[in-house]
Prior knowledge:
single chain; Aminopeptidase
Amino acid sequence: MAVFCTDAGHGGSDSGAVWKDIREKDLNLQVTLKLNHLLKERGHTVWTTRRSDEHVPPLSIRCRLINRHYQLNRPAFDAIVSLHCNVAAKWDDAMGTYQPLPRYRGLYAIYSEESVNGKRLARLVAEHASRHDISLAHHGTLSTVELGRSLAWIHQTRPVSVLVEMGFMTNPEELARLQDEAYQQILAQSVADALEAFVQQPV
């Protein structure tokens, strides 16, 4: 059995994206808790960065704690996955507010171009999401080079890691689905299946 680390993006004073009064941090946590349950049911060990929205360590501290555990082999994680939601909007000067770009939709997994295993895990996430009829953006994967910036979960942690953008809150259909428990379960199952495939099919 494998040892995984999961992260529900943002948390505490950091709400992440907010759209229609829906906070990204809440959606991330809801799916992550479902993912943790699935992985444990399948016999895996799961460490997670937060189980609630209280006493959330800053991102830099979370990364350092993970690296310390990994370095000391207590435990040496097989993979890390951080779950997030996306937004796409532009500022409208006339209206004085952000206007959504609802044409953007879909899930994708972000990885480091320098990590062969990171790229493989990202592709597995996209593949299993597609099997569950989840819409994909960027054909399901995006490197941080293509993204144009580094990400702490990918570049500041030692274990293999990916960051999954589960969908766009600015797309009305996806926002409704992201709040739906049945769809959240499908998202969690897709990521769980990908993590299992990753450890079962080494390079």
